[in-house]
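Contributing: when you submit paired examples, paste them exactly as shown. First protein:
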Amino acid sequence: MHPLLAQRRSLSAYLLFWAGLSAVPWVLLHSAAPLGALVLSAVCTLTFAIATLPVWYLCRALPLLPAKLWRVLSIHTAAAAVWSVGFLVCSEFLAELLALLPTLQALPAEVGASEGALIGVGALFYLLVATFHYVLAELEQRRSAGEREAVLAHAAQRAELSALRAQVHPHFLFNSLNTVSALIGYDSVKAREACLLLAEYLRGTLGAQQRALVPLQEEWALCARYLAVEALRLGERLRVEVSLEESAQHCELPSLLLQPLVENAVTHGIALMDEPEPLRVRASCRGGRLSVEIENGLDRLARRSGRSGGGLGLANVRARLFGQYGNDATLRIERELARFLVVIDLPASVPPHTEAG
C-alpha cells in the first residue's frame, strides 16, 4: 500500500500542498474569469496529484543507482511527457465543461492559448511527484532498516540476557553439589535431605527460566530454597532476617537475579566466619522504584585476602540489569570493615493482574 494512503493525515497534507501549487497554472491562464480559472486549476492539479500516486511504485522499481542512472532518467522523461499531455487534456476537458456556464464560455479558448505553458506545468509537476516519491521511498527504507535493527538488537539483548541467566545454574549447581558431597562424609541423612531440597529448587527454577521477569516474592522463594540447602551444611551459623514490604513483594525483577548475590553472601561472608552476623535482606518500593538490599558480615581474613567481592556473581547481576533496564537500574556496593552491602535499585513494575487485584 502507498504510504500516504496508510495515513490519512499525511494524505491530507499532500493534497493541501498540491492545492497551493494550483496557483501556478491559474496564473499562466491569464483568464478574464479568475474564479472559473481558479476552479479549473485546482481541480486539474488535485486530480493530477491523485492520479500520479502510482509513481511511488515506479520509483521503488527504479532506484537511483549510478550504474542505471541514464535508464532511469529516460524512463522518467518519457513518463513526464505522457503526464504533461494528460494534464493538458484534463484542463481542456474541464474547460469545456465549465464553458457550459455563460460567464465561462471563453475558458476553452484561454486554455488553448496556454497549451505550451500547461504542458510545461504538467512536466514540472511530474518531476515534483517523482522527486517526492524518491524522498518518501528513502525515508521508508530508512524506517524499515531502523525497525529491522531494533528487532535484531532486541533479539540480541534477549539472547544475552538468556545467556547471563543460564550462567547462574552451573555456578549454583557446582556449589550445591559440593555441599552435598561434604554432607555425605559425616551425615547421610542431611545429604539426602539436601538432594531433595536441591531437586525442589531446580524444579522451581524451570518456570522462572521461561520468564524474563518474576515477582519479588517468587524470586525470594527460590533463594529461600537455596538457603535451606546451605543451612544443612552451616547449621545455626546461617541466620536470615528478611524484611520485604508488601508493596515490594509484587514488583517484578529479572528472574534468578538475587540468587547469585545471596550465594556470594553465604560463600564469601557467612561460611568463613565462626560467629557470623545474620544475612539481612530488605526490600522496599518508593516513588516508582524498587530497592533490594542484601547485607552480610565479613571475616577479617576474608577482607585481607580480597575474597569478599564475589566478582563473577556481581558482574553477572550488573550486566543483566543493564541489559534489561539500561542506565535506569543500578547496583551499588558498600564495603566496610565488618559489613558487605549490595543495593539494587530498579524501576518498580507490577503485573497487570496484580494491579487489578
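Second protein:
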Amino acid sequence: MTAAAVQTSAQPAEPDMFGEQPSGAQPHEGLIFELHGTMAAAAEVRVKMPRDGIHARPVLCMEVRPAHGGRGRTLHAEQVYPENGREAAEAKAAILKKGVPVTLLTSLKDMRTILPHVQAVELTSSN
C-alpha cells in the first residue's frame, strides 16, 4: 500500500500534540511512514487542546485517499502547529484542496487506527 523509510536524521517539523515543544535536535523514535495519495476533501484547520489544557494549538486536518491499495478508503491525518501557527496552518489548508496529490511523512510512534464499522464484538477466553 505505501512505502516506509527510516530517516534517523530527520527532525519533526512540529511539536508533538500532547508533549512539550522540542528543545534542540531530537531523533524520531521508530520508523517514518511515507504515504502518497490525493486529498479526498479540502483540508481544514481546527483547534485542539493538549494535555496541559491551557494552550490550544491549531491542527491541519486532512482526509487523504491512498494512491496504492486504498480501494476507495480515506485516511484521516493531522499536523499540529505551535500555538502561534494558526496563520501558517490556514495558508497550508488553502492549497490542500480536493484532488491535490500529497505525500505525508509521519512517525508511527503515536499512530492510531480507528475501526468505524465494527459489526460485532465477541468475548474470548483467556486460557
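If you have annotations for the second protein, write them as plain sentences, like these:
DSSP finds one helix and six strands in the chain.
The chain has one domain: 3-107.
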